[in-house]
Design brief:
six-stranded mixed beta sheet, 9 helices, Rossmann fold, alpha/beta, four-stranded parallel beta sheet, 14 strands, 306 residues, elongated
């Protein structure tokens, strides 16, 4: 996958609302397999689509990309040995020592791309249609689903759901929405109407803690206003909740098991071990692995001293 194909896939992932990080090589010092302009996507699971460098660079970029996805902060990496850079290290750069046999170096910019909100409006009124249009103006993913066909499969745990059926399939739509346990669930209607619907669902055995998460009325309660103002009030409240961090849009990832290569000292994924003396050892590349296998006692003693 070349650089342009990587950007096309990045656009598709963003449209699907998936979190990922885009890594771009902005500088290199040869010899290095990574070239300026090389790009790669790193997914939440740690898969790499594209190319940013060989066996020394890739594990470091994957680890840093996963951290960037978690905290939402881009970073500029210098990969190599510290003595290679000298005064080239500027404030804000992260130097990651890489004991690569090629003695090359890379500068890689990692940009996390977090998913945009996914708003699902259940209903078919002019207000529901306007709410979808307003959300799309913010570049949110927004879907309008008729209450007669809406199911829990239309949303996930990160979705923002507004049930705006307004008397048509209120109970059925809200029951489906509650089952999906979305990040936000609001019902358009008066407090009195909300109490009636929630009471009905409670009598049907729906958990009270889940019903307690339903916001009634959805959005900012402005009293008797037009349907256009109701749509604005709902979206404004969702923007407020997202900005305050109250919505569950966490994209944290579980870091894979890692170990230190006893030959070069790099942090590497803990896979394909070599067993020696009842312990497992992991390596960044075949060269380090071969060096260890030739005389493991040398590196085990070195690791013990450290």
């Amino acid at each position: 996958m070349d650089g342009w194909s990587v950007l096309e896939e990045a656009g598709e992932l963003a449209r699907r609302g998936e979190a990922f990080a885009l890594a771009t090589v902005v500088w290199r010092q040869g010899p290095s397999s990574g070239k300026q302009g090389n790009r790669a996507i790193i997914t939440r699971s740690g898969e790499v689509h594209g190319w940013i460098g060989g066996a020394c660079a890739e594990p470091v970029v994957i680890r840093q990309a996963r951290e960037a996805m978690t905290d939402g902060t881009p970073r500029l990496l210098l990969l190599g040995t510290p003595d290679q850079f000298g005064s080239a290290v500027q404030d804000g750069m992260t130097v990651v020592p890489v004991s690569c046999q090629s003695e090359g170096a890379l500068e890689v910019y990692i940009e996390p791309v977090r998913p945009v909100p996914h708003l699902v409006v259940v209903g078919r009124s002019p207000m529901a249609q306007l709410l979808v249009t307003l959300a799309e103006a913010l570049d949110w993913r927004a879907d309008l689903v008729d209450g007669s066909v809406f199911t829990a499969a239309d949303v996930d745990e990160r979705s923002l759901v507004v049930v705006a059926t307004q008397g048509h399939f209120d109970e059925e739509a809200l029951e489906q929405a509650v089952a999906a346990q979305p990040a936000y669930l609001g019902l358009v209607g008066s407090k009195r109407r909300g109490e009636s619907v929630l009471g009905y669902l409670a009598d049907r055995g729906l958990p009270t803690d889940q019903l307690g998460r339903v916001q009634v009325p959805a959005g900012l309660d402005l009293g008797k206003v037009s349907h256009q103002e109701i749509a604005v009030a709902i979206l404004a409240d969702l923007v407020r909740l997202r900005a305050s961090g109250e919505l569950d849009d966490d994209v944290s990832v579980t870091a894979p098991a890692e170990a230190v290569d006893p030959v070069c000292g790099m942090t590497v994924p803990a896979k394909d071990p070599v067993e020696y003396g009842g312990a497992a050892y992991y390596f960044c590349c075949p060269g380090c692995r071969a060096a260890f296998e030739r005389d493991p006692a040398v590196y085990v003693k070195k690791e013990t001293r450290c």
